[in-house]
Amino acid sequence: MKNYPISLLETIRARSIVSQYLKPTQLIRYEALSRILNANVFIKHENHHPTGSFKIRGGVNLMAHLKRQGISGVITFSTGNHGLSIATAAKWAGLSAVVVVPERNNPAKNRKIRETGAELIEAGKSFEEASQTVERLCAERGLYYAHPADEPHLINGVGTEFLEILEDAPDIDVMIVPLGGGSEAAAAITVLKTIRPHIDIIAVQAQNSSAAYRSWKAHAISSAENTTFAGGFATGKAYETTFNIYKDGLRDFVLLSEEEIYQSIGLAHYYTQQLVEGAGSSTLMAAFKLQEFLKGKTIVLQMSGCNASIEEIERAMTYSTFREGWRSVECRL
């Protein structure tokens, strides 16, 4: 199944599966953001899914295919949103699930994974160390290894969000997405560039976990320090399947400091009244940093997830972006 095609056609087929479980998420135009950025600004609210993130689309599509193959159980590693997607979709499909997370992982995400009935295992100090435990348990238990990036059915499932975007905003000029493992960037490129080749796709990543950015710049897969607090960005290397799509498909890449990621949580709250996680809010800060390029264009910012911990929200609330929005970051950009 790892060699299954990733394409617009497969995304359209995935939609018939995903739509059985999930409703389309809202694409909302924000007047204040549009005025400040001198652009036509929409946000795609993937944070409104039952699991609080876009990844459930891929999980649903993958589980449907696994069930047809007669597979009864899956295992994966995650910092949270992917694991919650696999655990939830497996439950809906009647499959068992094991999710391995790093030690000291986001407790809010751990709790939600356990609530699905999946087995949660904490192992290793990082995303990559957690993957080593998966490789061992996969062989011992005979489970299907649902990799968070190198899994075509996940990417085709995630691509359904971009079909929805084009239906609601066919004249989009720019799409900005967070990039960790790369499934969303790969899906955006596969769908948007096939239907509207002129659309510019821009990725955002944490400066403290910049493996994908470094790989994109070098045009070769590489690794990097992985110390960001933002779980959606917390990968220490790029992955072959997604990298081979985004290495040539991105117009640009924005890196954010840890402070800027916390500020982006504040911007999301101030302008959209949403409490979202670091990676999920990062596209707003990226848009402010790219305001000259975005001027006069129709842009969609992807709000990828809302599963922030209480500690992350509390710290973000200390930044003035929670109270003053754009004015608190204007001088920085």
TrEMBL record:
Organism name: Candidatus Moduliflexus flocculans
Protein name as catalogued: Threonine dehydratase
Cleavable signal peptide: none
The entry's keywords: Lyase, Pyridoxal phosphate
Cofactor: pyridoxal 5'-phosphate
Single GO MF annotation: threonine deaminase activity
UniProt cross-references to Gene3D superfamilies, sorted A to Z: 3.40.50.1100
Gene Ontology biological process terms in this record: isoleucine biosynthetic process; L-serine catabolic process; L-threonine catabolic process
All copies of domain Tryptophan synthase beta chain-like PALP, residue ranges: 18-305
Lineage: Bacteria, Candidatus Moduliflexota, Candidatus Moduliflexia, Candidatus Moduliflexales, Candidatus Moduliflexaceae
